[in-house]
Each structure stands twice: as C-alpha cells, then as structure tokens.
Amino acid sequence: MGAIIELIAPALLVSALWATSSLMQKHVLSHVKSVSSIIIIIGLIMGVISAVFALAYATVFKTQLFDKSVPTSVWGILVLSVCIGFFLAYYIYFSLIKNNPVYIVIALTFTAPLFVLLFSIAVLNQRITLCGAAGCLFIVLGTILVAN
C-alpha cells in the first residue's frame, strides 16, 4: 500500500502542477497574437533551465553530462522526439488552449496513455494487461464525457 501512495501522491502533484500551468498558459495566450512567439520563448526558457539543472546534477553527483556509450542514432531519435513532442505538439496545444475552453483541451490532450498503450504494443512489442487496457478504455470514455 505504501508503494502505491508513493506513486499516486507525486503523480497527483504533477497533475495539479500541469493544471495550474495550463491555466497560466491560457491567461498568457489571451494577451498574445502569435502562438509561435510563445513556443520560442518557452523553448528558450526550458533550454536554459534544463542546462542549469543538468550542470548542477552533474556537479553534485559527479557524473558525465553525455553518456559516450549511447549510439549516435539514439541521440538522433532524441532530437526527433523533441521536435515532434515539443515544437509540433506544443504549437498545436497552445493553438487549442488559446481558442477553446481549457478543461476540454486538457481532457483531450491528456489521452496520451491511450496512444502510449497502442504505440508500445505496435513499436516496442510490449504486452498489455487487462487492467491496463481497461484503464485506457476509461480514459477514452472520460474524455468523451468531458468533451460533450
């Protein structure tokens, strides 16, 4: 039971932080004409903050910043995931947030577990449990209810 609490409490905190962030983003977007400018600013801020944390982590824990055993192709996949997951997804997300009610956009965009389930089966050949499939079904049903 303790392990479940150790998982659920931080996950709910992350969810509350994302919800707060989404409301702030909606407010900011109501004062901005171009979604692209927000993405550039957020990208720069995230880049600087990430670099500072990475350097601090490497310094405190005396680790290397770059793992030399990682093949170049893996770094390429990481760059591609940033392009797709950050720039393209955030452009669409911010466009949706700017022009639609936040609660509907969040409900629809937080269906990621469904896509992770499907892609992990198709791409990674992972097996799905009955509970996992049922959970994704509930996510889809909940999304339909919120969007209506």
DSSP E strands, number: 0
Order of helices and strands: HHHHHH
Number of helices: 6
Question: Can you give the mean pLDDT?
Answer: 84
Please outline the major beta sheet: none
Q: What gyration radius follows from the Cα positions, in whole Å?
A: 18 Å
State the domain count. Answer: 2
Which geometry do the CA atoms define? globular
Question: Uncertain segments of ≥5 residues (pLDDT<50)?
Answer: none
Secondary-structure class: mainly alpha
Q: How much of the sequence is in beta strands?
A: under 5%
Give the N-to-C terminal Cα separation. 36 Å
Q: Would you spell out the secondary-structure blueprint of this structure?
A:
Blueprint: H1 2-29, H2 35-61, H3 72-99, H4 102-109, H5 112-122, H6 130-147
Helix pairs in contact: 2-3, 3-4, 4-6
Please tell me about this protein's structure.
The chain folds into 2 domains: 2-110, no CATH class; 111-148, no CATH class. Helix content is 81%, strand content 0%. It has helices spanning 2-29, 35-61, 72-99, 102-109, 112-122, 130-147. α2 packs across α3 (72-99). The two termini are 36 Å apart. The mean pLDDT is 84.
Give a summary of the structure in a few sentences.
With 148 residues, the protein is mainly alpha-helical. The protein has helices at 2-29, 35-61, 72-99, 102-109, 112-122, 130-147.
List keywords for this structure.
globular; mainly alpha; 2 domains; about 150 residues
